[in-house]
Design a protein that fits this description.
Order of helices and strands: HEEHEEEH
Strand content: 25-35%
Radius of gyration: 14 Å
Structural class: alpha+beta
Distance between the termini: 9 Å
Strand order of the largest sheet: 2-1-5-4-3
């Protein structure tokens, strides 16, 4: 098990093309931890904005009567991928990992796989 700061640093060192990462509380929209990379992203703004994305998807699933969980949410921009991965552990309820990737350097399938492994090792 790794702590939040170690986990976020791990995303930057093990996931090719990582531009920034955050652990976010989607009840408040606050980042509990961030790590900047070469992307120059304002991760506090990203945390708050992506909280709206998670909340909207959860409301939509509820209205549709879907009993499924969100594995991850992918937002594809012209030059970046943004991955949102809600935590599934009991201690991680209400939290999500956010990862921004350089689209030209990242392998999306590998990034998703590595983010799932990192989540499994995270101790909140």
């Amino acid at each position: 098990m790794t702590d939040v700061d170690s986990t976020l640093r791990q995303t930057m060192t093990t996931i090719e093309g990582a531009l920034g990462a955050a652990l976010v509380d989607y009840n408040s929209g606050m980042a509990l931890g961030t790590v900047d990379g070469p992307g120059g992203l304002d991760l506090s703004v990203a945390a708050a904005g992506n909280t709206d994305v998670v909340r909207a998807k959860m409301r939509t699933m509820e209205m549709l009567g879907l009993k499924d969980g969100i594995e991850d949410i992918l937002i594809t921009l012209t030059s970046q991928y943004h991955l949102i991965r809600p935590l599934t552990s009991r201690s991680g309820k209400g939290l999500f990992l956010y990862l921004a990737l350089d689209k030209n350097r990242a392998n999306l399938a590998m990034a998703r796989h590595q983010l799932a492994r990192i989540e499994a090792d995270l101790e909140v």
